[in-house]
Amino acid sequence: MSRRRFLVLALLIAACGRSVDTTWQEGDGHRWRALDVPRRGTPGFTLLDPSRTGVTFANTVSDSLLVRNRILAQGGGVCFGDVDGDGLVDVFLARTEGPNALYRNVGGWRFEDIAQRAGVAAPDRYSTGCMLADVDGDRDLDLILVALGGPNALFLNDGTGRFTEQGEEAGLKSSAGSTTIAAADVNGDGWLDLYIANYKAYTTLDHISPQERAFDQVVRQLGPRRYEVRERYRRDYRVVDREDLGGISLEQRADPDLFYRNAGGGRFIREPIARNPRFVDEQGRPLAEEPEAFGLAAMFADLDGDGAPDLYVANDFEDPDQFWLNDGRGNFRLAPWYAIRSTSNSAMAVDVGDVNRDGRPDLLEADMLSLDTRRLKTQLPTHTAPPKSRTISLPPNDAAAITAMARAMRNPSVRAARESDTTACATIASITGCTPCRTARTSGSAPYVTSRDASTATVRLLSSGAAIGGLLPHVVYTS
Ligand SMILES: [Ca+2]
Ligand SMILES: [Ca+2]
Ligand SMILES: [Ca+2]
Ligand SMILES: [Ca+2]
Fold this sequence. Notes:
Elements: H1 3-16, E1 25-27, E2 30-32, H2 50-53, H3 63-66, E3 78-81, E4 90-93, E5 101-107, E6 110-113, H4 115-118, E7 127-133, E8 142-147, E9 153-157, E10 163-165, E11 178-184, E12 193-198, H5 215-218, E13 219-223, E14 226-229, E15 237-242, E16 247-252, E17 258-262, E18 268-271, E19 279-280, E20 295-301, E21 310-315, E22 322-326, E23 332-334, E24 347-353, E25 362-367, H6 373-376, E26 390-393, H7 399-409, H8 422-432, E27 449-450, E28 458-462, E29 475-478
Parallel strand pairs: 19-23, 25-29, 26-28
Antiparallel strand pairs: 1-2, 3-4, 4-5, 5-6, 7-8, 8-9, 9-10, 11-12, 12-17, 13-14, 15-16, 17-18, 20-21, 21-22, 22-23, 24-25, 27-28
Helix pairs in contact: 7-8
One calcium ion binds at residues 302-304, 306, 308, 310, 326.
C-alpha cells in the first residue's frame, strides 16, 4: 500500500469512527446530552407496529354516547414525560369513554399500560386534555387532566409513577367543556401556572329541535335594532350586533377559558380574565366580559423574544384566536390584531418552533379543512360570514407607526387614508403601491386605513393608544 493510499484509508477510518460525546451533563434540576445522529439514512420517522411496541390504545366512542353529545367525538390528548424517573420517556393517552392509558417505557421501544396501578385510569369522566408537569416543585412530573363537563383534576406523583388525585383543594374544579392545558411560570415566581382552554360541554343541536332554536323563538325584539335572548336560552345563546354584516347575529355561547395562578405547592387559584388588570386588551384596558370562544388549543411560548412566556389560544369557528403578550411579570396584553393578520377559521391545533432556523419562533396552526380539493369536497365548512370590523389605535400622524402597520399588513389593498394626512397617505402609498388615497368618510380627525383583504376587513386608525412594537412572528399555516 502506498503511503498516500494508507493516509486516505486512515482518514476514512477516523472520520467513520468519530463518536459524539453522549454522556449526560448534569444541571440544576435537569440534565442534557448531545444526540448521536446516525450518518446514514434519511431524516424522518419509522412507524412501529403496535405488536412490537405494545401500544394498542384506540380512542373509540360509542354511537349511543355520541347521539347524546356529539362534542365527545373530538378526541383526547397525548402527553409525554418520564413519570417514574428511570430516564425513559413514558406516554399518557386520554380516553373519552373508558380508562386512560399510561404506557410505561420499558426500553427497546416496548411499553406496558400501568394506568390502573398508577392511579390515573380515571374511567369516570370523559378525559380530553392532559399535561405532565411538576406543579408542586418536588421534581417529579404530576398530571393535570381535564375532561368534557369536568371534573378537571390534579394528580400528584409520589416520584415513582404512582399518582394520587387531589380533591377540590387543588382549585381546578370545573364543569366546563375543557379541551386542553398550557403550563408556564407566567409571573416568574418559580411555580407553574395554568391556562385551560374550554370549548363547550354540550351543544344545543343535541338538545333543542331546529324549530325551537329558530331565531324568532330564541330572540325577542325590543325595538329598532334592539334584541335580547329570551330568558330560558341565555345560558346557551347570545345576540351579537354585527355592524360589518349590517344586522344581528345569533350565536351559541362557548365556555370561557380558565386561568389559574399556582399559589405554591400545586394549589391553584382561578383568576378571571375579565375585569382583571392581569389581562388587558390591545388598548391596555381590562376586558369587560369573559371572552367566550370555542377554544381547542392553547400554548405558552416566548414569541417576541423577551424571555417571558406569551400565550396563544387557537379557537374554532369564527372566534378570533387570542395572542397574549406577557410583560414579564405575568400580565398579558392582547397583541395588535395585525401582528397575525389572519388565522384559521376552524383552528384545531397550534405549535411553535423555529422552522427556518433564523432564531425566531414560528407559529403553525392546523385547520380542519383539507388543502386537498377532493377531500375538501367531503367536508362541511362553517360558512362563516365575512370578517368583523376591527378598530385599532395608533398615535396620530405617526408615520413610523403607520409604516410599521402597513408593512405588517403587506397588503396591496390597503388603499385609503385621510386625505389631509399626507404623511400617512404617502407612506402607505409608497409601501403598498396603492394610489391615490381617498378622503375618509369617518368622523372626527382620525386617520384611517381601509383594507379589503379577506382576512382583515375594515380598519380604522384612531387617534390615541398603543404604539406598534416589533411583533411580527413568522406565520406558517397548513392543514
Ligand atoms: Ca419512565
Ligand atoms: Ca411533582
Ligand atoms: Ca407562577
Ligand atoms: Ca414574550
